[in-house]
Amino acid sequence: MELNQYQEFAQRTCNMTEKPIAKIENGILGMCGESGECADLLKKYLHQGHELDPDKLAEEIGDVLWYVAEAAAGMGLSLEQIARRNINKLK
Fold it and tell me: What's the pLDDT at 53?
């Protein structure tokens, strides 16, 4: 699946029809929450003796991606534009 196609599909599950700033807020705050869940899984593995569940971690990373798509949509940017900007920055 292409990044922009993913973003289009993800937006079908978003019920926010408010101003773009609402999508940006939802995306940024959602990224924080979901990345925290990723960190919690890793913390439990590293410090509490839990197994690292790759399926659960993949689900949480997918949730982060959904919120990235949401924030980008609120900014009027595609995921491919975001990815291209990031690669250019890394060069």
Answer: 97
The CA-based angle 23-26-28, given to 5 degrees, is 105
- CB of 38 within 8 A of CB of 64? yes
**Could you give the CA distance from residue 75 to residue 20 in angstroms, rounded to a whole number?**
7
33 band by pLDDT with thresholds 50, 70 and 90: very high
Residue 19 has pLDDT above 90, yes or no: no
